[in-house]
Write a structure and sequence with these properties.
homodimer, 450 residues, alpha/beta, six-stranded mixed sheet, four-stranded parallel sheet, 10 helices, 25 strands
Chain lengths: 450, 450
């Protein structure tokens, strides 16, 4: 058979987050062949993931199948798989079960949690990066109230009705605000023996202020708004111990069984397999054009890239930065293909937003520092605008905007991981099940197993 | 402290399905104290669960927190827990960690799958009764296509692109139809190396016809509609063997890795702890008034009850039957409380419906046998009517009806059970991950583990 086509350059893109997906779109009408590899089958709108964790939205509201987004872009192959290793000298990436060679590579593998050396904290205090984590956090929050209601007849255990968020960045602030509204408003009339409005909610920050990446003005406003919602904020309180039913932060001992981790992120461990310099957050120190030293065909974008602006400030780990970097890397690859030299990346700062609840937010836009309602309106429209770009589901947007405004937390579901049904056991095996930590022994004696 | 209140009778209701929830509502303004116990925190609209399994709807669309449904009914306590044993002589039910005594008991614990003695088939062919199962089936169906796309370069493995539904009752017919539309229409343009429209879909039934509980006319119509959608239907083909990558049905060997079980249900194992006669499906043979012999204060309703109508036919395992029985049992309890005698239950048959896809359905309503579009319109309005009864979420209904009609399967997500992050391992541990069954060895040698 005659090969009529000239071989097209093969671009491999790792990660279908904001960086990777926007890079793919730049190639839409270009004579390249693209392989986009992601660990999941969906693009996740991470800025709203905290709402899944707090029952405001459901996973399908903020996640769209990658194939569906790119179904009309014929030059891209989408592959579900986890890249375990990049072999820069051989120009290939390795999955568990296969290797893929590339001519150009964009690494947009993002960031993951770090527990600062206390890896055993991970099972006690899950972080919030994936749908599975959001659903697990939702399960833990809701189960705490179910357990409290169940045990209320006996005594009120402080550890059950205390929810703790560790880390006062944007995610921590947003989760704490959403949890406060969930307990103070949405669930207010749902229980008979406990009053969810009296739930103790703590936000713990190691540093001197909330939202350290935003202005002092916004930090102060966020703190005030959270306190008005009844959230206790502990500043200057690094967590030094974390166990099943308590933690120690800034010398205080806090009884709790429900802890959410939003204290630290590091670059994906994939970065370690690149022969490139990493900063002290495990992020790849990229060249001015977003490529890495020694390998001009490899670009790193998004949360995994460490890029210092001419002002000396690092580019923040935000969706707009990832989008800009992804597009820039793709354009630089097109320049290389066409025999041109690459051009340096310039970050255009569109501002930083954080929401603290319905109708409250803070915004830093250039020298403009906004708080409360107007900032929230900006927040709302920005997010709707970005979501539409990916999904074009106007009816759903109306629906969730409406649900969001009316406090109808329609996704308040406790779901369990599937397990094959085992004859002779209850449908729900006991360890997953919210037992009463009061350890009340039934008069039947030992726990029952069929 | 003076006890001003006369002690109210305590009614315990096990299960918040159609039967249990409708029983609770009868007591709304009555001087009783109710404890409603369910294994999950949500009422599930089971008739649409197959749509979650096939990506058409998302769990929150068909599940509502029980507490939310009953938040204004002050005489009910909702308890998240699994009843493991009923002790009729001591008038109490036992959970894992506590015992609850009752004056009156309604058992609405429903039905579960049966593998007819082949319990080891459960992990190969999950059934469809809970959200966890629906999400798992969705994951398996979608992962099959991801794996097929990944392996297509090498060879096309028949077992990967063959989906099998076992059991030709309403659930089986509905799943097979929905899977056919998912592959033939929704996913048609999403892949590059495989053509999802060529997916082999089989529906296997042990008996001589589909929908054995409906009329011959409806069986014939369902069969024709499914064949038009490209589903291969095997009748008179009991499954005799089921393994990881094949099954044997009616003597045929079929290569497949994706099997869904809808072949048999039996009463919840809880029934065995009641001192009452069971039929050969493990369901409780109830008296005319829905109570059980020897215990006039215990009523059994819904899928767990075996009730023979005066015509000799059993009451079918359908939502309208459970609703009617739940209400009737509650009214009989009120009669007992007021010193009256109970009255016998009479089932009012509203007809039977099954859908085979968008704009196709069959309906038996009395002597009326409908098929295709008109039956489907009845199906649609019936389901919307029942959903509204529980949820009053009109905007959501419009949204999903619209999505349903336009083939926009917006919930096509592969999600994994949450696991604590383990340092030194990939985020996704390998056994859960869709490896390439082609067993292609990478040139890096053995599989990589960080």
């Amino acid at each position: 058979m005659l090969n009529k086509e000239v071989k097209r350059p093969h671009v491999v893109i790792i990660g279908a987050g904001f960086g990777g997906l926007n890079a793919v779109k730049v190639f839409k009408r270009e004579p390249v062949s693209i392989t986009l590899i992601d660990k999941t089958n969906h693009h996740l709108f991470q800025p709203l993931l905290y709402q899944v964790a707090t029952s405001g939205l459901t996973p399908a509201d903020i996640a769209t199948p990658i194939r569906f987004v790119l179904r009309h872009q014929q030059n891209v192959n989408v592959l579900l798989g986890e890249v375990l290793q990049i072999n820069a000298s051989r120009k290939c990436v390795a999955l568990f079960d296969q290797e893929i060679t590339y001519d150009y590579l964009i690494v947009a593998a993002g960031a993951t949690h770090t527990y600062f050396g206390n890896d055993h904290w991970a099972s006690i205090a899950p972080g919030l990066k994936t749908i599975a984590e959001a659903v697990e956090i939702r399960r833990r929050i809701l189960t705490a109230f179910e357990t409290a209601e169940k045990c209320a007849g006996d005594h009120n255990r402080e550890d059950i009705t205390t929810l703790v968020v560790i880390g006062g960045g944007a995610t921590g602030v947003e989760i704490a605000g959403a949890v406060a509204e969930l307990t103070r408003i949405s669930m207010a009339s749902d229980f008979r023996k406990i009053d969810p409005r009296k739930t103790r909610i703590l936000l713990i920050e190691a540093g001197p202020r909330l939202l350290p990446n935003m202005s002092e003005h916004s930090s102060k406003n966020a703190l005030e708004s959270l306190r008005k919602l009844g959230v206790e904020v502990l500043l200057n309180s690094p967590v030094t111990d974390l166990a099943d039913h308590y933690l120690i932060a800034g010398g205080h001992r806090i009884s709790t069984r429900t802890v959410i981790w939003s204290a630290g992120v590091v670059g994906s461990p994939l970065a370690k397999t690149l022969e490139a310099p990493l900063d002290n957050h495990g992020k790849v120190q990229v060249n001015e054009d977003l490529s890495i030293p020694a390998y001009p065909e490899i670009f790193v974008v998004g949360d995994l890239a460490s890029f210092r602006q001419s002002s000396g400030d690092p580019v923040p780990g935000l969706a707009p930065a990832a989008i800009q970097e992804g597009r820039h890397a793709a354009r630089n690859i097109l320049r290389l293909i066409n025999g041109k030299s690459t051009i340096p990346f310039r970050y255009f700062d569109k501002g930083t937003l954080a929401t603290i609840g319905r109708s409250k937010a803070v915004a830093d836009i250039g020298s403009l520092k906004l708080s409360n309602f107007f900032a929230w309106v900006i927040w709302l429209f920005t997010h709707i605008f970005f979501l539409i770009g990916f999904r074009n589901r106007f009816i759903v947007l109306i629906q969730w905007a409406w649900a969001y405004i009316t406090y109808h937390t329609y996704s308040r579901l406790i779901t369990y991981p599937w397990k094959p049904w085992v004859p002779g056991l209850p449908d729900r095996q006991v360890p997953d099940y919210p037992g009463c930590p009061c350890e009340r022994i039934t008069s039947l004696g030992k726990p029952l197993r069929r």
